[in-house]
Amino acid sequence: MSTNKLLAFWNHQAGPKTVHFWAPTFKWGISIANIADFSNYNIKNWNLFSVNFAMARTGLYQLSRKIKQDYFSESTEIEAAAMQES
Prior knowledge:
The structure is a single chain. Helix content is 79%, strand content 0%. The protein is mainly α. The longest helix has 27 residues. This is Mitochondrial pyruvate carrier. Keywords: Pyruvate.
């Protein structure tokens, strides 16, 4: 990797010097740890379980909001009709 690309990555607004880089990285780590726990079929780490449960619930809630907005909202129908007219 060239020095310029490495510096661009390092200084990027969502690079490793910001929470925007590390938060998803740690969330992936939690998800991987949760998948690794599937092989045990018993919950040994209740803290990890509760975090993953909360993340799953909030993620599903956000996904339901997105689907509701995209497919069941009147504003979507109005925008689609306006795009067809232009």
